[in-house]
Automatic annotation (TrEMBL):
Residues 12-49 have a biased composition (Basic and acidic residues). Coiled coil: none annotated. GO terms for cellular component: DNA-directed RNA polymerase complex. InterPro entries: RNApol_su_b/EpuA (IPR024596). The keyword Hydrolase does not apply. It holds the Pfam family EpuA. Residues 1-49 are annotated as: Disordered. The chain crosses the membrane at residues 61-83. The lineage of its organism: Bacteria, Bacillati, Bacillota, Bacilli, Bacillales. The keyword Coiled coil does not apply. It comes from Halobacillus yeomjeoni. It comes from the Bacteria. Keywords: DNA-directed RNA polymerase, Membrane, Transcription, Transmembrane, Transmembrane helix. This is DNA-directed RNA polymerase subunit beta.
Length: 108
């Protein structure tokens, strides 16, 4: 296992080694950013400003809720009308649901 040593030959503590690595990383980052400053393009400037969304998040949530409700209604109609051999529009009547609730809870 290699031990990290400073230029004087003394063993460094973990905290000192972390600090040395942090400084080296900061210096490398500064060199990289200073060399790229002259090469900044309009594409990089746009990414700094931010991105404009076509559809706001609240509208996306609303669309998901509406599509989920439509899928639920369509599924109920297909299940009742096609699989259950009933009229698909009867699946939307309250009397049908009341009858199903009565069957499940066994009240008449």
């Amino acid at each position: 296992m290699a031990t990290d040593q400073n230029p004087n030959g003394k063993k460094l503590t973990k905290e000192q080694e972390r600090e040395r690595k942090r400084k080296a990383l900061d210096e490398a980052t500064k060199k990289k950013t200073s060399s790229e400053k002259g090469k900044a393009s309009s594409k990089e400037k746009k990414s700094e400003v931010g991105r404009r969304r076509i559809l706001p998040i609240w509208l996306r949530l609303l669309i998901v809720l509406v599509l989920s409700a439509a899928a639920l209604l369509l599924g109920v109609m297909v299940g009742y009308g096609v699989i259950g051999d009933g009229k698909p529009m009867d699946a939307l009547n309250w009397e049908t649901w009341q009858h199903i609730i009565d069957i499940v809870t066994k009240t008449e």
